[in-house]
Amino acid sequence: MNVKLRVWRQKGPQTAGQFVGYEAKNINPNMSFLEMLDVVNEDLTKRGQEPIAFDHDCREGICGMCSCVINGEPHGPEYKVATCQTYMRSFHDGETITVEPFRAKAFPLIKDLVVDRTAFDRVIQAGGFVSVSSGSAPDGNAILVPKPDADLAMDAAACIGCGACVAACKNASAMLFVAAKVSHLNLLPQGKPEKDRRVLAMVTQMDEEGFGACTVTGSCEAVCPKGISLNFIAKMNRDYFGALFKAGPKPAAAAEA
Amino acid sequence: MKLDARIPSGPLPQKWDKHKASIKLVNPSNKRKYEIIVVGTGLAGASAAASLAELGYNVKSFCIQDSPRRAHSVAAQGGINAAKNYQNDGDSVFRLFYDTIKGGDFRSREANVHRLAEVSVNIIDQCVAQGVPFAREYGGSLANRSFGGAQVSRTFYARGQTGQQLLLGAYQALMRQVGLGQVRLFPRTEMLELVVVNGHAKGIVVRDMVTGKVSSHSADAVVLATGGYCNTYYLSTYGRGSNATAIWRAYKKGATFANPCFTQIHPTCIPVTGDYQSKLTLMSESLRNDGRVWVPKQKGDKRLPGEIPESERDYYLERKYPSYGNLAPRDISSRAAKQVCDEGRGVGESGLGVYLDFADAIQRLGIDKIRERYANLFDMYHEITHEDAYKTPMRIFPAMHYAMGGLWVDYNLMSNLPGLFVIGEANFSDHGANRLGASALMQGLADGYFVLPYTIGDYLASQKTGSRPKADAAEFKQAEQETNERIQKLLSIRGRKTVTDFHKELGRILWVHCGMARTEKSLKEALTLIPALRDEFWKNVNVPGTGEDLNQSLERAGRVADYLELAELLVYDALMRDESCGCHFREEHQTEDGECQRNDEQYAYVAAWEFTGVGKTPTLNKEPLVYEEVHLAQRSYK
User: Where are the domains of chain B?
Assistant: First the structure.
């Protein structure tokens, strides 16, 4: 099959970008979308031009490094599939495919299709962990976890941190990403001691990074390669308001929290 | 060179405890005066960086991805072993130790492996406490499954995403320390040189992959956790960015490289479909718990799998290895697949594939149970092949997967270069000639959470606080200059072939001449082909763009340049090791039924190679493998 590409090329954050047209010829439909870009890049290199920069690593849909908005949809046309697991059979012969970077204020562009998603790391640094140092854990079976809780926590923990939810949202909100991590940890007994502190700190950091507000349109869930449910946003909101309005005395030395 | 493994004396089960009690400590108020560099943020690197920071050391953590959470440990699917014996099925530290030694075909160090089995239980506790959502029974306790090379159920798992969940646990622990200011994070930063000052590793030279700036970082100790080198073969199950540059630079600065020819080929990957293929995708070994491997009995049988009656199928693993069946270890299963394909009984368009069939399991357990266990793997298989494995058997074929070899380390995980520690897949220490499934995650986390935090103190205590060199010392300046010159050289060749052209060719040479089966003739041939390809690379490679911004071609060029040297070492080692063991199968040495024929008298040693110059024969150093507890035996999985 043959396809035409319109790819966003931008040398760096300070220079203006533009769509540039390319042709990909004799493409095998069983090729992945990124392998098709590899072929285009090999061709560009042979013609003495700079290849298209794009992020990728595991190419099996789990590392979250690949991004790209393909024909207006983060991670392309297939439901619950990342860009790297998108295959050319999802497009038709002769189609023009538009490829852009994830666009959000909190994800500044680096080059071409590559953006900076370190804002996500900073949100995790704010509270997306259990404060347990190596060596201080009780036996793994000392605290029993009901299977439904563990399963639900796993559903949330499946997030790969790619940022498609932000790219899809008209407000560039990171609520699905943050909610997934808050829910994963808050659902488990091991995460309970820091439940309130975690949700407050992570939401504050999320706002500081410049992510937008959530209006629950659900576009995030629709494009999520792991199908993380919008219900986790509702759960996070409950945790958030619960923590915000928690009454009662606080320990005297709680200044740091 | 004298290699001292520094294995503690005394009975095997007491070595680690004794060692911990006798090595030097750094007092808490002195820990903050030391700076430690950790390169790589996979399971080993992230867990080490977090644990060292928790102890109070100042840590700098480097990774090539945009976030530490992307490291390729994330892709491990099946699980992590631990000798918990929660299943009451007879497991013990000794059994896990013995299975690992035996699985490695008696080419690993007893003391290291025993320690690994001992701390395996702590890993599970630690991960549970971090909030890793392991699979649970209805009663709330942890669930287990079985993996290859073991007759007990000791594998803990989080659906088919165990690596992801364990990595997120370690990543979150690391992020906590970044938030506390104890770790400084350098994402999108690639280590390009190790800096050795007065014989000790004291820093690294890195390139900022976004701005192209080359700079130096000094430290009191350097930890490499940069993974394995199987991407030398071009096609593998590794991430595309995984590379050998950090360990190769260290090798060229004097660290010895152990057992480079021990590279593992995983039996269950999705077969290659075309020349454009950029990587191979693994289908977890855990699938062999419920899947049955078979090919048609008849050569060239082109019928659809469903049309081949039971009597005309050869469940060859069950036939050849009745007691382990479909759970035979990886090296044995891979070779068995190659054998049936060589006989012309392979399936799929290319004939390079075997079936992994779930029909029986679905009938026995119901489709829901299978979905619960493996849904994400079946989904992934569907995404890639467009086939529904609930209805038709998967097609699988072996692929390069893991490097058991790596930089040589002593019992403290320190290389022969003082101050250079190597952990996880990047070192050689625990898996011998073949790694068992679900043991890589165990080793990475053992090294990072529970071994290195103890042993690094023994070295640091011998280094005066504040004695580390400054990052503008002469040794650093020189290393920076060499790095810059090398980058400029790569950019200035402007030849006619792309980096990928060379990488693919190198991969083809290695796969054909030094892949699942090796002969003296094939290896000698590779030793003429590789240097020729390397010479051509430095004359005819085309690296577009400049060194001053994000340039992925330049990044790859530097890595492929290193593979072109490493490949030669790998082949030297394979040629020298004139025996078959584990994944290293020399056709000259096989038993009557095609199994590995070891030669313990001559080759029961670790081959640690020393760099003597590019294109020159490296020097072989031998660390004899002394077995005190285990009786060397022909492996049998029958």
Answer: 265-401, 474-624
Instruction: Supply the angle between the helices B552-576 and B474-492 in degrees, to the nearest 10.
Output: 100
B550·A64 Cβ contact <8 A = no
pLDDT digits (tens, 9 = 90+) for B487-537: 999 999 999 999 999 999 999 999 999 999 999 999 999 999 999 999 999
Residue B51: list chain A partners with CB under 8 A: 133-134
Structure tokens of B129? Answer: 């406490």
Which CATH fold would you assign to the domain B265-401? Flavocytochrome C3; Chain A, domain 1 (3.90.700)
CB nearest to A42's CB, from B380, B500, B549: B500
* Domain B265-401 identical in fold to domain B474-624: no
> Which pairing describes strands B354-357 and B292-296: parallel, antiparallel, or unpaired?
antiparallel
Neighboring chain B residues of A141 at a CB cutoff of 8 Å: 86, 141-142
Task: Fold for B474-624, please state it.
Answer: Methane Monooxygenase Hydroxylase; Chain G, domain 1 (1.20.58)
Q: What is the pLDDT of residue B148?
A: 79
Task: Collect all residues with Cβ–Cβ distance below 8 Å to B135 and sequence separation of at least 6.
Answer: A150, B142, B143, B156, B157, B158, B159
Which of B118, B178, B268, B279 to mutate against chain A (most A CBs within 10 Å)? B279
User: How crowded is residue B319: how many other Cβ atoms within 10 Å of its Cβ?
Assistant: 11
Spatial neighbors of B516 by CB under 8 A, at least 6 apart, are B265, B334, B335, B338, B398, B585
Interface contact flag, B165 A135, Cβ < 8 Å: no
Q: Give me the residue from B185, B210, B241 closest to A110, CB to CB.
A: B210
Q: How far is A105 from chain B (nearest CA, A)?
A: 17
| Two structure tokens written together for B283 | 């289908």
Question: B330 an active-site residue?
Answer: yes
Chain A contacts in chain B segment 285-344 (CB below 8 A)? none
Q: What is the pLDDT of residues B246-267, one digit of tens each?
A: 999 999 999 999 999 999 999 9
Consecutive 10-residue runs of chain B (638 residues): their mean pLDDT? 94 97 96 98 98 98 98 94 96 97 96 98 98 97 89 92 97 98 98 98 98 98 98 97 98 98 94 89 89 95 94 96 91 92 92 95 95 87 92 95 98 98 97 94 98 98 96 98 98 97 97 95 98 98 96 98 98 98 96 91 98 97 95 83
| Strand (E) or helix (H) holding B80 | strand B80-81
Structural domains for chain A: 3-110 (3.10.20.30), 117-244 (1.10.1060.10)
What pLDDT is stored for residue B503 in this prediction?
98
